[in-house]
Amino acid sequence: MIEPESIACPCGCGDMARIGEDRTERLDVIPARYQVIVTIRPKYACPKGRIGVVQAKAPAHLLEGSWPTEALLAHVAVAKHSEHMPLNRQAVVMARLGVPIDRSVLADWMGRTGALIAPVVERMAELLKARSSRLNMDETTAPVLDPGRGKTRTGYLWAMLRDDRGWAASATRAGLPLPPGHSGEFADEILDGFHGTIQVDAYGGYSHLAMAGRMGGQPLKLAFCWAHGRRKLIKAKPKMGSPIFGLALLRIALLDQFFAWLAARVSRESDLGDAMAYMLRRQAGFRLFLEDGHVDIDSNLVENAIRSPAMNGRNALFAGHDEGGRSWARSRA
What do you get for the CA distance between the two ends of the chain, in Å? Predict the structure, then answer.
């Protein structure tokens, strides 16, 4: 509120009357501020020494015997996993604001937090599988330190997503822990107990889940992604152009004609032929969205969901070990 230097009326009648105001708005920022919260628990005893000491119980903390409050742990986790700010950069910012905490300490906090929230993430996955008839699945690489070899090895982050907004008012996402490899056995573990349809790319680790005798439940239906199939065709387009390539894209709009036309022209002697064979072999999964209205035409939803942890993996360089990778996934969930 900014008042004039004087509101005395020049005519001498006294103070002027307020008849209105002008307002302007500007966006401001309150910089981050760290504070120390001190908890004091007084002790009381009988002045004559007849009974013991009385004192309030200490409040429970997520990380017992450590400095950070739960709010600070959440702040560090969000900055790391949602804003893709590695812990070494966070340590620099905190030091600039008067809180010099080493990156290794922040890593310890995140590791312990990731372990403690594991039951919550596992329960989220259980609910997703129990309450869904269709799930989106995807995986992305995440480098994991391998000290014995003196370099990193490739681990994988898996994402599971449910989005029923097309026919129900719900949309849920959960990230799952990082397994130490990329094979079908991990898909078995993640999808154990689920029955229904999975919306996936054509990674071979899912194929056996559609077979009779599947471990962990009934055979699943695999719905394949048209965005992946079309992308393979475009990537395989010959540099000099090809009339077959153009016709393939046109005929995708007419599914029955497309697959019949494809079957008569498939040849593996070229990249374009290989891309066409990719779609023909998976014809049933590409057609599934026509038979089930709960199935999408592509798996772009889960691809977008896993993009954020993939970016975090690039910024952070690598996970220190398998459990560190699981901590990444749990904190992201």
Answer: 45
Q: One digit per residue, pLDDT tens: the chain, 333 residues? A: 999 999 999 999 999 999 999 999 999 998 888 999 999 999 999 988 888 899 999 999 999 988 999 999 999 998 988 888 889 999 999 999 999 999 999 999 998 998 898 888 888 888 888 888 888 888 777 777 777 777 777 777 788 888 776 666 555 555 555 555 556 677 888 888 888 888 888 677 788 888 887 876 788 988 888 777 777 776 766 666 666 666 766 666 676 667 777 766 656 666 767 777 777 777 777 777 777 767 776 777 777 766 666 666 666 666 666 666 666 666 665
Distance CA 279, CA 232 (A): 9
> Can you tell me the distance from the alpha carbon of 30 to that of 157, in angstroms, rounded to the nearest whole number?
36
Q: Give the burial class of 12: count Cβ atoms within 10 A of its Cβ; 0-12 exposed, 13-18 middle, 19 or more buried.
A: exposed
Neighbours of 89 (CB within 10 A): 15
Is 174 strand, coil or helix? strand
Give the residue among 138, 144, 78, 192 at the shortest CA–CA distance from 323: 144
- Kindly report the length of the chain: 333
pTM more than 0.90: no
Burial 62-84 (b: 16+ CB within 10 A, else e): ebeeeebeeebbeebbebbbeeb
Look at residues 297, 320, 164 and name the one whose alpha carbon lies nearest to residue 230: 297
- Asked whether 222 and 207 are in contact (CB, 8 A), the reply is yes
CB 159 within 8 A of CB 128: no
Task: Tell me how far CA of residue 221 lies from CA of 144, 224, 259, 264, 283, in angstroms.
Answer: 32, 10, 20, 27, 13
